Amino acid sequence: SLIIDTKDIKKSYVMGSETIHALKSISIQIERGEYVAFMGPSGSGKSTLMNIIGCLDTPSDGTYILNDHDVSDLTENELAEIRNKEIGFVFQTFNLLPRASSLENVALPLIYAGYGKEDREEKALAALDGVGLADRAQHKPNELSGGQRQRVAIARALVNDPSIILADEPTGNLDSKTSYSIMDLFADLHQKGNTIIMVTHEEDIAEYAHRIIRLRDGLIESDEVNKNVRSTV
Ligand code: ADP
Ligand code: ADP
């Protein structure tokens, strides 16, 4: 069943007397459980599209149905509510709280979701275990390697059991070997049924995805099944 359905999405930015058409017409359908990579040159509209898919922003025109909710035209608060429930974000820069332990970082989304302390710790520990870091629960980010930090961030993205994992250049700050181990983790999460949407400008990283969508100038240039899915395990 469809988890993402966008119809003729447009996004324009008005800059003084100029209007920038960041997205001109984007229609994409993604099924539950797919693993999709978005590629495209700088300025092609990837961030703009990810912000809309991730419910951080709304389109200027067109419709976006996320997990059967029409999120095309919601208020900030409604959007935040859907976002917290449906989306697990993974960023290039990890975005962890520096003074908090791995466990506390992972438990953070559960505070907003209203879980009590015991439930939070139990769920956060299970999520850390899922990314192979149960033994690093009390470590702070600066006591972890880059790859371990990204694993903590992935555990945080997963802890609320989101409909979609949205990863923006998840390996952008990692060396190749660590990048591939993060891609192995994504492959594992995909195999377990998670829906993963990733933005990357690295071909060898995109090749881990099962479908590759390329943007150019605010339009879809190509949308293809990846017949040679890469794996390092
Ligand atoms: P954003 O999505 O944050 O608006 P970009 O997608 O343009 O920004 O780039 C994300 C990061 O990847 C930036 O640090 C940028 O410098 C880098 N980057 C983008 N495209 C390339 C490329 N073709 N080669 C090397 N680095 C790139
Ligand atoms: P990418 O992530 O592929 O680098 P973006 O989505 O960041 O592309 O940008 C697409 C186009 O929209 C670019 O021309 C960019 O300058 C413009 N743009 C993006 N965000 C804004 C904004 N907040 N205000 C004005 N123009 C923007």
From TrEMBL:
Domain ABC transporter, first and last residues per copy: 4-233
One MF term in the entry's GO annotations: ATP binding
Entry keyword annotation includes Thylakoid: no
UniProt-listed Pfam families: ABC_tran
SMART domains the record matches: AAA (SM00382)
InterPro entries xrefs: AAA+_ATPase, ABC_transporter-like_ATP-bd, ABC_transporter-like_CS, MacB-like_ATP-bd, P-loop_NTPase
Keyword set, alphabetical order: ATP-binding, Nucleotide-binding, Translocase, Transport
Family: Belongs to the ABC transporter superfamily.
Name of the molecule in the record: ABC transporter ATP-binding protein
Lineage: Bacteria, Pseudomonadati, Bacteroidota, Cytophagia, Cytophagales
